[in-house]
Amino acid sequence: MPRHFRYAETMTEYRANVRLIDLPTMTLAGLGADFISAMVQGTDAFSVLPKLWGQVSGILESVQAGGRNVYESKAWMVGAMGEPELPPYAESNSEAQVEGRLHYFAGVRVDGLEAELVSAILAAGLQLRSFKGGRFAACEHVGQLDALGETTEWFYKTWLPTEAPDQRFGHHYEIYDERFKMGSPSSVVVICAPIRD
User: Fold this and answer.
1) Quick one: residue 170, left, alpha or beta (phi over 0 = left, psi -120 to 50 = alpha)?
2) Do residues 150 and 163 share a domain?
3) Residues 111 and 101 grouped into a single domain
4) Are residues 182 and 88 in the same domain?
5) Range(s) of the domain holding residue 167
6) Which residues 6+ apart lie within 8 Å of 173 measured at CB?
7) Less CB within 10 Å around the terminal CB: N or C of the chain?
8) CA atoms of 80 and 5, how far apart (whole Å)
């Protein structure tokens, strides 16, 4: 059953609907950065993640192959969140042990795209990474992006602990599929948390 919310700061209305889904392993072309989760004090998510998406989008907008670009292909844009990546100079994982520190990889799903377009994307400077699929609890945020943090907080702090306590280790995803429309009140972003079968 969808939950309806009103984001207090902007009075933006949005709703969330949760279901279980199976996702395939995905290959993404994009860029990554470490950040501090929006669920802890001292977060830098609201500066790091938009900047990262801006870099990826800027590169993708310039890519053309065979008279087409990525946005015409209706490929998914995906944000993959997981454990922070160790700096090359780190001798231990202690530098990654900052509370709420995560790694975010923002990219376009290249599975199924024409080889010429994928080659052009990689030539433009994006990195190729593979992310495991499996069973996920998927929370559909319907509404504008300014309320996505509220939906994410409800999903992780309220819904998951009570409805899907058997989570598994793995990447968490934000999926921007063909239903995502920037600025639209009916836009959809899917937040996915890995769970056991």
Assistant:
1) left
2) yes
3) yes
4) no
5) 1-24+132-197
6) 23, 78, 79, 80, 81, 131, 136, 190, 191, 192
7) N
8) 25
Gap between the Cα atoms of 155 and 16, Å rounded: 8
Claim to verify: residue 153 and residue 57 sit in the same structural domain:
no
Q: What is the pLDDT of residues 81-91, one digit of tens each?
A: 998 875 555 55
Cβ-based neighbour number of residue 137 at 10 Å: 20
pLDDT in tens, 104-139: 999 999 999 989 999 999 999 999 999 999 999 999
- pTM comes to 0.85
Distance CA 55, CA 50 (A): 9
**What sign does the CA torsion over 142, 146, 148, 153 have?**
negative
